[in-house]
Design goal:
Strand content of chain A: 5-15%
Radius of gyration of chain A: 24 Å
Strand content of chain B: under 5%
Number of helices of chain A: 15
Largest sheet of chain B: 2 strands, antiparallel
Helix content of chain A: 55-70%
Order of helices and strands of chain A: HHHHEEHHHHEEHHHHHEEHH
Order of helices and strands of chain B: HHHHHHHHHHHEEH
Number of helices of chain B: 12
Oligomer: heterodimer
Radius of gyration of chain B: 20 Å
């Protein structure tokens, strides 16, 4: 079996699962910190209930986010030892910084927040939850700076003796625009994901007219933040796209299935390719728009896949430098569609609050909106990482040259199957708990009960 | 600074991070393994978990920091070790995952079967980690097949060696004792006495294993070449502190008993790392092919960057982690109304 394919599959699977939980952690930690702050300021019981309820769901989510991330610190060395040797000099520092500046703060202060109630002054607990939120953002920043370096290597030299990358300018590495653009895009996506999570669950309860005060307030807050951040995602994404055009033209062309260089270039809304996926049969296009996406002008040149392939063969030697276009093309379009639906639905929900909600039909189906950001998040990462192929580090190291030379198919299958089983079970358990606690509502979240008998039967209070 | 000086400093720092992890997570693992045996009902088990509840996650971060710092400053060590011990690492990861998730999810459902399942996953995860980390770290000194290009060339299970197994069981036994001592220090009333009784029973196991490990080091490693018959003060001290631990356990001097098992963990690791120095992974194929701090480190520039970062942030982290220990310093009562779930 192909070890490179299996290794990629394993890395992809573990990180797709990991990233199911990351965006919600990013946004929810700040939401909960804000709710807690409001409670601290006003002593309003509704804010207390909100803090408890959303805090509980946040904790269920972050627990699995933390454990599903551990594997990454190990698997660079385990499966990608040649990559680790090649990039360690540069790539290791952001990872260590992530541990030092983010993980310690998150894990210490979440313990303080959960276990500190009644033991320490409330002001300190409040500080603790804000530090968790800031820690989560730092974590995103450092890991995205590391990933950004793989997409757009800066601040390095190649050591002549070892042939490996070596840090020349660390400030350039942490100032890498690629990583920062990733960060703003991911951060806004995290807030949007959390907003839709809150909107969906709030709508569920409002449709059943239970805990109205808590969920009305939650819904209003989330709809506003959701609209703002969903809109911001487009701007952060657009900026990122233009940087891709400058730094990874092949990825840019692959996202658009843009085979032939266009000057100016038109944007494909929908393209049907032939069975090889290499030639288009029919397409619906907006003239000039791709040029606009690439450089904010309607007349600039956008190089096509075919020209770039020729250029790369001259520059890097024979080989296939074209990513899997069917994946990049469609994941981008699905992501965009989800994004547009998010802006539209959060706007409608925001406007709908001006009218009485008691019998509003939309509350019934609104929980399904939670799926939108999750699909968009998934597509965004698939597009970013698969669009980088065949490179592991853009222009420097190919994926096939990064894997561990002592790897055997047996080892790889062992880890792939073990991780799949464990991650699969994790997702099932998490989904079960999340659904149960979300439906049980704030009263159940009040009882951090001691004994099995005292815990109210979850779900009982949520029966329709 | 000179590259060589930085390499030596970083060997010392990486060793410190691992030792910190073994000291802190050592009692976490011990507590985890003892959980289903010392907790007879739900409140008792919750009390046991709450002794480490607020801190176990931060303790585990010393592992993450040790691993990522290794990646940054000794990429060849990181790459060879993690790809070589592949199967061991898979088991460690699975253990860490099932254990970590169980702390958070075990009380989220009231059914006894649910809670029991997660309690056992905590125990099994802690067990696998104690054993496997012991094997892996003993093997670093005992040697695994590494060729002249710093690549691991053994099979998937070549790391299962007699010396490694002795080291693994030793770490397991010491963590169990360390955990029991920690519980004696943190629990109250009848639970405190139950933990003390466990420590007395577990003591013999740990004492025997520590002595066996010390003796087998003469058989399985090149210690006689490196330092001669006289091993120096460190290994002797590490055996002695464990042997005197029983005195404090019997005298109900709980703090001292905990310090002694902690010291044993620290001194044993210090002895190991100093026997390795300047090597970081011994090659069983040819001593000249061993990984050393010189052939596995990053550039002077990278080491400088990492030094500055660590100098600023490690003290801050230690300060606030210490503070969290301080605010949760009280003994945990088993009465239901005192328990945080």
């Amino acid at each position: 079996m192909d070890l490179v394919v299996l290794s990629r599959l394993q890395f992809g699977l573990t990180n797709i699962v990991h990233f199911l939980f990351v965006p919600l952690t990013l946004g929810m930690s700040a939401y909960v910190a804000y709710m807690h702050t409001r409670y601290y300021q006003t002593n309003d019981e509704t804010f207390y209930k909100m803090t408890r309820f959303w805090g509980k769901l946040f904790l269920i989510n972050i627990a699995i986010g933390v454990v599903s991330g551990i594997v990454n610190e190990f698997q660079f060395g385990m499966n990608w030892s040649e990559f680790s040797r090649y990039v360690g000099d540069i790539f290791g520092a952001p990872l260590a910084l992530e541990a030092l500046l983010a993980f310690f703060a998150e894990s210490t202060f979440i313990g303080v927040w959960v276990f500190g109630e009644g033991k320490i002054p409330e002001k300190l607990r409040l500080g603790a939850i804000w530090l968790v939120a800031i820690g989560a953002m730092f974590s995103a920043l450092w890991i995205l700076l590391a990933n950004g370096w793989m997409q757009h290597p800066v601040g390095y030299t190649i050591n002549e003796e070892t042939g490996r990358a070596q840090v020349a300018n660390f400030l350039a590495v942490i100032g890498n625009p690629k990583g920062w653009l990733f960060f703003w895009h991911t951060l806004t996506a995290g807030f949007a994901t959390s907003s839709f999570f809150i909107m969906g669950i709030s709508a569920y309860h409002l449709a059943r007219r239970q805990h109205v005060e808590v969920f009305k307030r939650s819904l209003r807050m989330a709809a506003l933040v959701g609209l703002i951040t969903s809109t911001l995602i487009f701007f952060t994404g657009h900026a990122q796209g233009q940087y891709v055009y400058e730094t990874q033209p092949m990825k840019f062309a692959a996202i658009e299935a843009h085979w032939e260089t266009g000057h100016p270039a038109s944007f494909s809304i929908l393209t049907i390719g032939d069975l090889t996926g290499k030639r288009e049969v029919w397409s619906l296009r907006i003239p000039y728009f791709l040029s606009f996406l690439a450089c904010n002008r309607f007349d600039c040149e956008v190089r096509g896949v075919d020209d770039l392939q020729k250029e790369y063969q001259i520059q890097y030697g024979a080989g296939n430098y074209i990513p899997l276009i069917v994946v990049t093309y469609w994941s981008f379009r699905i992501m965009m569609t989800m994004g547009l639906l998010m802006i539209l639905s959060s706007l409608l929900i925001l406007l709908a609050q001006r009218r009485p909600m008691e019998n509003a039909r939309w509350l019934r189906w609104a929980p399904w909106l939670i799926a939108l950001p999750y699909i968009a998040n998934l597509c965004g990462w698939v597009l970013t990482e698969m669009g980088r192929q065949p490179w592991l580090v853009q222009g420097l190291l190919k994926v096939e040259d990064g894997i561990s030379p002592n790897m055997t198919a047996g080892q790889l299958l062992l880890s792939l199957i073990s991780y799949s089983l464990v991650y699969g079970a994790l997702v099932v358990v998490m989904f079960y708990l999340m659904r149960r606690y979300a439906r049980a509502g704030p009263d159940a979240a009040m009882h951090e009960s001691v004994d099995a008998d005292v815990i109210p039967a979850f779900g009982a209070s949520a029966e329709e | 600074m000179e590259h060589e000086v930085l390499q030596i400093i970083w060997f010392f720092l990486i060793a410190t991070l691992w030792i910190g992890f073994f000291f802190l997570e050592g009692f976490d693992f011990g507590v985890g393994m003892l959980l289903p045996f010392l907790g007879k009902n739900d409140a008792e088990r919750r009390a046991i978990i709450n002794t480490i509840g607020p801190v176990w996650d931060a303790n585990e971060m010393w592992l993450i920091l040790a691993v990522t710092a290794m990646f940054a400053v000794f990429p060849n060590w990181y790459a060879t070790m993690f790809s070589g011990f592949y199967v061991a690492m898979v088991i460690i990861i699975v253990g860490l995952i099932i254990r970590g998730i169980s702390f958070e999810y075990r009380s989220k459902d009231s059914r006894p079967q649910w809670r029991s399942l997660f309690d056992w996953m905590i125990a099994v995860g802690s067990f696998l980690n104690s054993l496997l980390f012991g094997i892996v770290f003993t093997d670093l000194l005992g040697g695994v097949p590494i060729d002249q290009n710093l690549n691991y060339t053994g099979g998937p299970f070549s790391w299962i060696t007699p010396y490694g197994l002795i080291g693994g069981v030793t770490m397991l036994s010491v963590f169990l004792l360390h955990g029991a001592n920690f519980l004696t220090l943190k629990l109250d009333d009848h639970m405190r006495e139950r933990a003390r009784a466990a420590a007395k029973t577990l003591y013999l196991f740990a004492a025997v294993m520590v002595v066996v490990l010390a003796i087998s080091t003469y058989i399985f490693t090149d210690i006689t070449v490196q330092v001669g018959i006289d091993p120096g003060i460190l290994p002797i001290a590490s055996v002695v502190v464990l042997l005197v631990a029983i005195y404090f356990i019997n005298r109900k001097m709980e703090g001292w008993a905990f310090i002694m098992t902690g010291l044993n963990i620290v001194l044993t690791q210090v002895a190991f790392f100093s026997l390795m120095y300047p090597r970081v992974m011994v090659s069983s194929m040819n001593p000249a092919w061993s990984l050393t701090i010189y052939n596995s480190s990053s550039s002077a520039q990278a080491l400088t960057v990492m030094s500055i970062i660590s100098l600023i942030f490690i003290p801050i982290v230690m300060a606030y982690e210490g503070w969290s220990y301080y605010i949760f310093r009280k003994r945990i009562k088993t009465e239901k109304e005192h328990l945080v779930y």
